[in-house]
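Q: Could you write out the predicted structure for this multi-component system? I'm mainly interested in how the pieces pack against one another.
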Amino acid sequence: MDRATVTLISVGVYLAICIGVGWWAMRRTKSSHDFFMAGRNLGVFLTAFAVFSSTMSGFGFVGGPGLVYQMGMSSLWIVAATMAGPAIMFALVAKRVRLLGELRDCVSLPDVVAARYNSETVRALMAVVVLLGVMGYLATQILAMAIVLQDVLRDANVFPGISIEATVAVSTAVLVFYTVTGGIIASVYTDLIQGAIMVVAAVLVFVTVLGTFDGGMAEMSQVIAADDREAMGPWGTLGMFGGLSWMLVFALGTAGQPHVITKYMMLKNVKDIKRVVPLGALAYGVAALLWIGLGISMRALVLSGGHDPLMTPDAAASAFLQSFAHPLLAGVVFAALLAAIMSTADGFLNIGTAAVIHDFPVAFGGRPVQNELLWARVTTVGIAIVAALFALYSGDLVALLGAFGWGTFAAAIVPVIAIGLNWKGATATAATYAIASSLVVNFGVRITGVSMPYGVDVGAASLVVSLTLFLGISLLSTPDELDADVEAVMEM
Amino acid sequence: MIRDVDRRLIYALLCACVPLLILLLIGVFSPAPPELVPTPHPDFDPMLSSGSGAPGGPLVILAGLVTGILVILMIGICLLIGVRETAKSLRRWVVAGTVVYMMVFGALMLSYLEFLQGGPLVIFGGLPAPSAWMLYGVWLFPWVFIIAFVVTFDDVYFPPESEARFRELLNAKEQR
């Protein structure tokens, strides 16, 4: 059986599993609490893999190796931040969101923020940030899913002329099916499967990578450094400030990703945090081997004449798999790639739905909508359709919103949630300014086209600005009165 | 007794942010010279090559060192903010870990200075020495913090008294 057919079968089996999990989870989803919080009943493995696979999106499997191919070692500062991130999540966020979530029956991050600051304005602003980020991320993930599916179908000569609109429709339909029927329960169970596929695929690819040169990684390093010594140095071609700004925004920013934080709110037992964090970090570390190995290998292969030059950096992963991987491994990795994309997309779909049918009605109307579960399902379909249309027809706007994601979440959420849930002196006014500044700086820089100096990431700059405003304004203001239960949780 | 984060940590975090903002502003008003900007690879576009003058002069490298130390300091302060003052063993662990983490970054920079001299490439674990410091040091070192939180979990992070207090709060909520 040829490579393309094996890949098609692997992807087909994977999509069928997702639909099956959605069908199974539908019977376990009886309320909006189940739909958004999985009944706060998740065990260690489910939560750890949900955290890991939500964090490792398609970017890690496609964009990451592509960046190494393009820039050398620069993007590995994102990887270098991925162990500090879980440590900060452990210290600042995991326990407090879990405790406050149960105590106040929170089903979303804006719920947690409203409980902490006693402010509907802060809740509404946080919901706006979540919804904007979700639309951008979701649209880019849907587009990525559709491109992968189109490639797989064309390579296998099955529907070779299939349009991108058709693959957007098919991939979105699968995503919508399992997230609508099974809500977050289907999402976390598929995350477990998706995470396991990603870890296995990463290990197998890394072993394959080591075999592409007789001298292994050392020879690849020599080849790249012979062409451009800096490219193989710690800062790559981007330079030290680009790398360090990525480290800042990805280390601190991990504690500011709503689709990741909400997973900790679903844990059955608070004490499981001590197993969830290391297990999630370990899984991410193993999966990152694909990013590191494949990127370095493709750059070295092209420089040494072992492979034709690539048309785009993002082609690095698929080109490597086509040329060097066993057909079965290529099949598994393509399924893993779809898994990485879908595991992030389903989390975003869920928190976006919560923002629309829960957070906005509570912020502006004072109470949630009637029959939340029905409206959650309807809204999930609506958001997915809007995001799919957005992906197809919004042109540059989708790229703008996609890039907007991580950095804006980090700038808006790290001060307000990570610091604010630990420091009683943090005020609602400061939270409002911090969230507003994250939107202004991120959108402002991207819309005006201002180029950041020395390759500094705009998300990192935005995080430093919002953190400074948050701390400064809180220190200058009189602390707000805290509810007794919130204060008690902050003291634990 | 009302317990809150030691306010000195908040000031310290602010003090780490301000120099980063200043460095950013300096960068905005004195953009990188063209020889520091990456250029398309002469043969394999869209691959990039480093600028002809990379990484820049001693001032740029010094600013990089300061930025790296500040970033790690911010990570350490954030970790400390999450640890109550009474948890002295964990606090010591975090402080010592942050200092060692900075030293790892310092070792990376020293190794990078040597790397800049040219000469044969020193390879460790398949990577040039400073890049090896980055991946095997900067990437993996925070496991020390994760392990510290795991080890002290039941005594410090979520001790039985916190658990009991949380149960009380839940019971009070159910009775309302």
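A: Regarding packing and overall arrangement: The longest strand of chain B covers residues 39-40.
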